[in-house]
TrEMBL record:
InterPro entries for this protein: AAA+_ATPase, ABC_transporter-like_ATP-bd, MacB-like_ATP-bd, P-loop_NTPase
Domain ABC transporter: 5-244
PROSITE patterns: ABC_TRANSPORTER_2
Keyword Secreted on entry: no
Key words, A-Z: ATP-binding, Nucleotide-binding, Transport
Protein family according to the UniProt entry: Belongs to the ABC transporter superfamily.
Annotated Gene Ontology cellular component terms: membrane protein complex
SMART domains given in the database record: AAA
Name of the molecule in the record: ABC transporter ATP-binding protein
Length: 255
């Protein structure tokens, strides 16, 4: 089977001439449909640069990025905008909710833009809100709900149009541990029950332990990958901590 995401020899250089800095060098990997992959590494390793390139927010200096049959590294801006809207989902640390819209309206926005039928929209909103445990908040505004509830609203919006892949950048970064756990459990459930494909950049070993595979980046290069396999989440957490103590990166002893 073809991988869902194929990253081949991706390089990213910032600056010009003697001031060139290679933020990413020779990055190649694949993600299959239904995987939940974490990306970890020390500060400045290139995690956000990689995620921004995959999310089409930034462009690589060279290399290919195939999502299904489409090479997004070679797409023009107009096609990319359509591709982003139709096939990609995003969850960022700072939620990016629209304050003047209710939770329901925020969640349904991608489907409204795609001109889906109201009955289809209603059914999808209710289904996804139930998955993220926010069904009772649909008529509230962002200022009336907590940070964790905002992030679950943002995750619902990212997933409502059933994107091919979801890119999450430190989604638990601003959350307390209970809210982070709620979000990560909902993301895991979506991954396991609905085969959502997720790639998540995180500093946090606890958040990473919800993934099935972790890619480690160091100095702009992929340094290692580890698989959860049949390990429990706690065993995988310990394995990630051991790895971080070798490759560098922040640790967090919450289990
Ligand atoms: N626009 C830019 N111009 C020049 N250098 C940049 C630019 N953006 C990032 N860099 C450099 O590229 C390297 C990788 O940055 P990046 O933000 O991807 O790291 P990161 O692993 O996400 O770090 P953190 O965990 O601290 O967010 C860093 O050395 C950074 O200073």
């Amino acid at each position: 089977m073809e991988p869902l995401l194929l990253v081949k020899n991706v390089e990213k250089a910032y600056g010009k001439g003697t001031n060139t800095f290679n933020a990413l060098e020779n990055i190649s990997f694949e993600i299959d449909h239904g995987e939940f992959v974490g990306v970890m590494g020390p500060s400045g390793a290139g995690k956000s640069t990689l995620l921004n390139i995959l999310a089409t927010i930034d462009t690589p200096t060279s290399g290919d990025i195939l999502i299904g049959p489409d090479n997004i590294a070679k797409m023009d801006e107009e096609k990319l905008a359509d591709f982003r809207r139709d096939h990609l989902g995003f969850i960022f640390q700072d939620y990016n909710l629209l304050d003047s819209l209710t939770v329901r309206e925020n969640i349904l926005l991608p489907l409204a833009i795609a001109k889906k039928k109201p009955a289809v929209i209603k059914e999808r909103v209710e289904e996804i809100a139930a998955t993220f445990g926010i069904s009772n908040l649909l008529d509230k505004y962002p200022y009336q709900i907590s940070g964790g509830q905002k992030q679950r609203t943002a995750a619902s919006r990212a997933l409502i149009s059933k994107p091919k892949i979801i890119f999450a950048d430190e989604p638990t970064g601003a959350l307390d541990s209970k809210s982070a756990t709620d979000l990560l459990e909902s993301m895991s459930a979506l991954n396991e029950k609905h085969e959502a494909t997720i790639m998540m950049v995180t500093h946090d070993a606890y958040a990473a332990s919800f993934c099935r595979r972790i890619l480690f980046i160091r100095d702009g290069r992929l340094s290692k990958e580890i698989l959860r396999g049949r390990k429990t989440r706690k065993e995988f957490f310990q394995m990630i901590l051991d790895e971080l103590s070798q490759v560098g990166g922040e640790t967090n002893d919450v289990i």
